[in-house]
Design goal:
single chain, MetI-like fold, about 240 residues, about 80% helix, mainly alpha
Amino acid sequence: MDFWQRGEASIIDILQISLLSLRVAGVGILFALPIAFCLAYILARGKFVGKALLSALIMLPLVMPPVVTGLMLLNVFGPLGPIGQWLGQFGIVLGFRWTGAALAAGLVALPLIVRPMRMALENVDPRLHEALKVAGHNRWRRLIILDLPLAMPGIIAGTMLGFAKAMGEFGATITFVANIPGETQTLSLAIFSALQSPGGEQLVWTLVAISMGISVVGVVVSEVLVERLSARQNSGRVKHA
């Protein structure tokens, strides 16, 4: 029996919801990050037909109604979806599981991760690339010693924006994996349930405070990291000037 049926929530219940939300958002961002960086790198460095279309497709989860995103995930990755059935052969289940919530969170956050990364990569001076190319460094070597360090502030900013979006994801999650206490019920879904429960006002504000606290801590940490990296890069430029 979950705490909505009991009519009360203990500290352990609230802690479990918070930890589940962190796990869902963290795993979602962890899987979205390498995909986001590859897409950002292609958009920043590539010159090909259909680049604008690719950029538009990446932004779709941000502009589409979240329910539509969740419905698409359900029809593709759900128990009856083509990819969902294929993954089921290996014991991987996404529909109505926390792993599916992580997938939804990562997908919805993807555009917010790609955008700052792309801008950071585009701001890398092309002349530095040419200098390293002349020095004999191939594209992968230039990526490691030039692009990654200089784009790190954008990578961190995109990661934290994506994490904040993933923490607050609601529509795609509830459509794809439902609102199952202990399995898929994140902070956003728990707030939604508390709003519909008689006498749930106190619980609502408790969950809201926790959600805001996590978001504030994440933003502060990202701001500090970005400032330190920017200061280090600027001092490096001064030394080489």
